[in-house]
Design goal:
CATH class of the largest domain: Alpha Beta
Strand order of the largest sheet: 2-1-3-4-5-6
Number of domains: 3
Radius of gyration: 22 Å
Distance between the termini: 52 Å
Bound molecules: S-adenosyl-L-homocysteine, iron/sulfur cluster, FE3-S4 cluster
Number of helices: 13
Structural class: alpha/beta
CATH topology of the largest domain: pyruvate-formate lyase- activating enzyme
């Protein structure tokens, strides 16, 4: 099956990481990366279906690619990931250009499925309900020599009423701690200095393993002991499962970064209950206060949904109040998108779309102004960054991230190379980034 492949990825870090595995599996079979669809013998989409606009993007891109395929019928199109898992055969009905549909549980079988698609008269579809081989066991073609994602669990056992993830990613399955630590050791010996531990709910890590241990906190300590890994991040912890032991481990482990992404979703207790989140706004605020007390300089970020079914102006105001109280360094904000098959999709939703958009605009304005003021607090201070490479925003600068995960654009300096950990004096701040110069 040699030839050239193009891989397009949508969605979250899990998908980005799965794509490294998809690329790894294809490259092991002798395929090379193509730089455009025109040069590709195979185009693979790794899809997302978290909100309707993710679905629309994929179908839009498939439409565009269909005309390329009409010119070159030998080109193969494969669609995998969450939308494929959700839509399955419907995807083939909506696009006749697709040759193969695979899901979130059978990345390991991709080469066999492609071979099958080669000899088959019609399109091939394989969607499994359970994971046979954890993608983590597959070869990966990593995007960065210095930073790596490490899967600690797949799937999700929660039932947030707005969320499609449990139905596409399945039940939570944790990887054995020894496998995770071995992978981190291997990565460190390859030159990786930063790992991001990935799971839909990292705080429930290990609950499905024998003896219900280790806890996530134990895992953090084990990865902290890996020599060569100087920065450990993780995403996402669920607020209801954030235990004091995790905060303690974060505070005590030198390599665990001072960063917490803790999705709150809403500041209204009524909406949080309807979302099935399992905590109240007051408890969330207490948890972050504990975390900030224990971890000096903590960078805190969150996810917020606006316009959940039945959200009143008073509920929305409670979200704004929570944002004011929490003073997040940053927040991903979303307008609620009904996902067929989820509990919330059947709820009465009288709020007009214009009103949701207007709330969304008010929320992002507040989030951005707080983010900016938090970044301004850093002006004049030194921060440690891991250099990533040339800045995408301004080619005369190079970029890196602080331990808190903040993006910093640094005036180019020939003493700095990608992969270096350097100290930068912050000179300027915007809502989404800092600027600075190398500190001597
Ligand atoms: N497992 C992660 C979240 C994964 S989805 C966690 O629980 O932290 C990432 C974010 O997308 C969620 O935190 C939520 O804010 C948003 N999201 C999920 N479903 C959504 C929907 N139906 N409409 C709008 N936003 C949604
Ligand atoms: Fe979705 Fe909730 Fe699971 Fe996160 S914890 S993936 S929001 S069901
Ligand atoms: Fe991630 Fe989207 Fe799937 S957010 S888990 S790629 S639905």
């Amino acid at each position: 099956m040699p030839g050239r492949y193009l891989l397009r990825t949508f969605g979250c870090q899990m998908n980005e990481h799965d794509s490294e595995r998809i690329a790894g599996v294809l490259e092991e079979r002798g395929l090379e990366q193509a730089d455009s669809a025109e040069n590709a013998d195979l185009v693979v989409f790794n899809t997302c279906c978290i909100r309707d606009n993710a679905d629309q993007r994929l179908y839009g891109q498939l439409g565009q690619l269909a005309s390329e395929k009409a010119k070159r019928p030998d080109m193969k199109i494969a669609v995998g990931g969450c939308l494929a898992q959700k839509d399955g055969a419907r995807l083939l009905e909506r696009s006749s250009a697709v040759d193969l549909v695979f899901g979130t549980h059978n990345v390991a079988r991709l080469p066999e499925l492609l071979d099958l698609a080669d000899v088959s008269d019609g399109p091939v579809l394989e969607i499994l309900e359970e994971t046979e081989v954890l993608a983590a066991a597959l070869p990966a073609s990593r995007r960065s020599p210095f930073s790596a994602w490490v899967t600690i669990s797949v799937g999700c056992d929660n039932s947030c009423t707005f969320c499609i993830v449990p139905s596409v990613r399945g039940r939570e399955v944790s990887r054995a701690a020894t496998d995770i630590v071995d992978e981190c050791e291997r990565l460190a010996s390859d030159g990786v200095v930063e790992v991001t531990l990935l799971g839909q709910n990292v705080n429930s890590y290990g609950r499905d393993l024998d003896g219900r241990r280790p806890l996530f906190a134990d895992l953090l300590r084990s990865v902290d002991a890996v020599e060569g890994i100087g920065r450990i991040r993780f995403t996402s912890p669920h607020p209801k499962d954030l235990r004091p032991e995790t905060i303690e481990a974060m505070a005590e482990c030198a390599s665990v970064c001072e960063q917490l992404h803790l999705p709150v979703q809403s500041g209204s207790d009524r909406i949080l209950a309807a979302m099935h989140r399992g905590y109240r706004a007051g408890r969330y605020l207490e948890r972050i206060e504990d975390a900030r007390r224990s971890i000096p300089g903590l960078t805190l970020s969150t996810d917020i949904i606006v316009g959940f079914p039945g959200e009143t102006e008073a509920d929305f105001q409670a979200t704004l109040d929570l944002v004011e109280a929490a003073r997040f360094d940053s927040a991903f904000t979303f307008i609620y998108s009904p996902r067929p098959g989820t509990a919330a999709a059947g709820m009465n939703d009288p709020v007009p779309p214009e009103e949701k958009r207007e709330r969304y605009a008010r929320l992002t304005e507040l989030v951005d102004s707080i983010a900016w003021s938090k970044n301004l607090d850093l002006v004049g201070r030194p921060v440690e960054i891991l250099v990533e490479g040339p800045s995408k925003k301004d080619p005369s600068k190079i970029s890196g991230r602080t331990r808190g995960g903040k993006l910093v654009h640094v005036s180019d300096d020939d003493r700095i190379r990608a992969g270096d950990v350097v100290t930068v004096l912050v000179g300027g701040a915007a809502s989404h980034y800092l600027t600075g110069d190398l500190a001597l």
